[in-house]
Design a protein that fits this description.
With about 250 residues, the chain is of the alpha/beta class. It has a domain at about 75-250: Leucine Aminopeptidase, subunit E, domain 1. About 40% of the residues lie in helices and about 15% in strands. Helix 7 crosses helix 8 (about 215-225). The longest helix is centred in the last third of the chain and has 20 residues, at about 175-190. It is globular.
Length: about 250
């Protein structure tokens, strides 16, 4: 008990031997501050007007884009990678070249039909309602369908109509390339018109036209790189990711 008593005294004494008021560092002054005798000034009409104008300018700078917004690219950016197209992130746009008959019976189109049956029904109805000649050079953007999403496939599907038919009835290389350019421009316009608040990702696709349509990929890529991006999408930049399976890249 004696040790405890000495320790208490030592704690309350400074190194110079003077006692320290330990309560002074935590107690706030109880002295009352004099109240101001002046009444607060009312804001004048001029000051209120200036305040409103300042608030309006601040709101404008937040909600409206500036004219000097950075432009990433005025044309499509093409990037190639190896992987699985159908492992793309949710809400990505999976694009493939289509004939105008509504047939997804072979090649990568057959995989689309199997994985996105509800989207295929939308596509087929669109083809039946429109003449094949009128579909050529256009695009169809299909939002994720409920039943496909429930099955785990939550991608947008983009169909670019580059050939009227398939097999021996397919279009010439030049007509397919012309239709590719027109269809991609139409697709970009549709993407720009998607309503605010709807999530839509990047464009991802295989090397379109080179399979059943027999067009060398290098020629299709040159057409895509020459496509001008609509003004509405330029600030964000539009990148097209071309996904190729590893076994295809090794061929």
């Amino acid at each position: 008990m004696a040790v405890a008593t000495r320790r208490t005294k030592a704690d309350s004494t400074s190194a110079s031997g003077k006692k320290v008021d330990s309560s002074s560092s935590i107690k706030k002054s109880t002295k009352k501050r004099p109240r101001s005798t002046q009444r607060p000034r009312r804001a004048t009409r001029k000051s209120l007007t200036n305040t409103k104008a300042t608030a309006s300018m601040e709101a404008t700078s937040i909600t409206q884009p500036t004219e000097d917004a950075p432009v990433k690219s005025t044309h499509l950016i093409i990037k190639e990678e190896i992987g699985d197209l159908f492992d793309s992130p949710p809400n990505s746009i999976l694009l493939h070249a289509c004939n105008c008959r509504g047939s997804w019976g072979a090649g990568v189109a057959a995989i689309f039909k199997k994985k996105y049956p509800a989207a295929y029904k939308v596509h087929l109805a669109h083809c039946k309602a429109t003449k094949a000649e009128d579909l050529l050079g256009t695009a169809q953007l299909i939002s994720p369908q409920d039943s496909d999403v429930k099955a785990g496939e939550s991608h947008w599907i983009a169909c670019v109509f580059t050939s009227v038919d398939v097999g021996k009835k397919k279009g010439s290389r030049e007509s397919i390339l012309d239709a590719t350019g027109e269809a991609m421009q139409g697709l970009l316009k549709q993407i720009g018109e998607v309503e605010d608040g709807v999530t839509i990702g990047s464009i991802r696709m295989p090397k379109i036209n080179q399979g059943l349509f027999d067009v060398p990929w290098e020629r299709t890529r040159a057409v895509l790189e020459g496509i001008e991006v609509p003004q509405l999408l330029r600030s964000a930049g539009v990148e097209v990711v071309v996904v190729e399976l590893e076994e295809e890249a090794m061929q």
